[in-house]
């Protein structure tokens, strides 16, 4: 299976002005390579600070790595008073390299813990909700200036 990191642009290349285009490109490339249908509900239309755009992009890359084994994925990223990201999947299986050996006591792996810390430092929320049916929803909310 192709790693999400093989199809994503460097987060350093993402700006707050082109976040929507970067997300659209990432999703198209990822869906093609892993053969998982992706339904895009919304893409950001408002320019956001570059630092927040890069953080949101990294969270999206992390979320896609977590849902790689899903049967279908839905993504929405919107901008208003906050930057919001929702990634939902059905029929999730644990992707390679994301097993329990790589997780800490709270169920996070090291990369997710770093992202959660960065989001919290910006007064945001990054959460994962698992359902027993193989469904997962990953959400991000970052306040915008």
Tertiary shape:
globular
The share of residues in extended strands comes to: 15-25%
- Number of separate helices: 3
Low-pLDDT windows of residues: 1-7, 95-107
For the biggest β-sheet, the strand order reads: 1-2-3-5-4
**Which percent range fits the helix content?**
25-40%
Q: What composes the largest sheet?
A: 5 strands, mixed
* Gap from first CA to last CA: 39 Å
Mean pLDDT: 82
Structural class: alpha+beta
H and E order? HEHEEHEE
Write down how many β-strands occur, each being a DSSP E stretch of 2 or more residues.
Answer: 5
From the alpha carbons, calculate the radius of gyration and give it in angstroms: 14 Å
Descriptive account of the structure:
This protein is an alpha+beta fold. Helices cover 31% and strands 25% of the residues. It is built from three helices and five strands, in the order αβαββαββ. The chain has helices at 19-34, 50-66, 110-121, and strands at residues 38-42, 72-79, 82-90, 125-130, 136-143. It has a five-stranded mixed sheet with strand order 1-2-3-5-4.
């Amino acid at each position: 299976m192709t790693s999400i990191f093989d199809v994503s642009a460097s987060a350093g290349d993402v700006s707050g002005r082109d976040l929507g285009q970067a997300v659209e490109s990432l999703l198209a490339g990822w869906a093609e390579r892993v053969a998982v249908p992706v339904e895009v509900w919304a893409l950001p239309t408002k320019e956001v600070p570059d630092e927040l755009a890069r953080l949101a992009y990294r969270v999206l890359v992390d979320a896609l790595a977590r849902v790689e084994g899903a049967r279908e994925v839905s993504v929405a990223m919107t901008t208003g008073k906050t930057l919001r990201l929702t990634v939902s999947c059905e029929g999730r299986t644990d992707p390679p390299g994301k097993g329990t050996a790589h997780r800490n006591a709270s169920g996070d792996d090291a990369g997710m813990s770093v992202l959660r810390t960065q989001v919290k430092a910006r007064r945001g929320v990054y959460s994962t909700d698992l359902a027993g049916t193989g469904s997962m929803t990953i959400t991000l909310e970052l306040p915008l200036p």
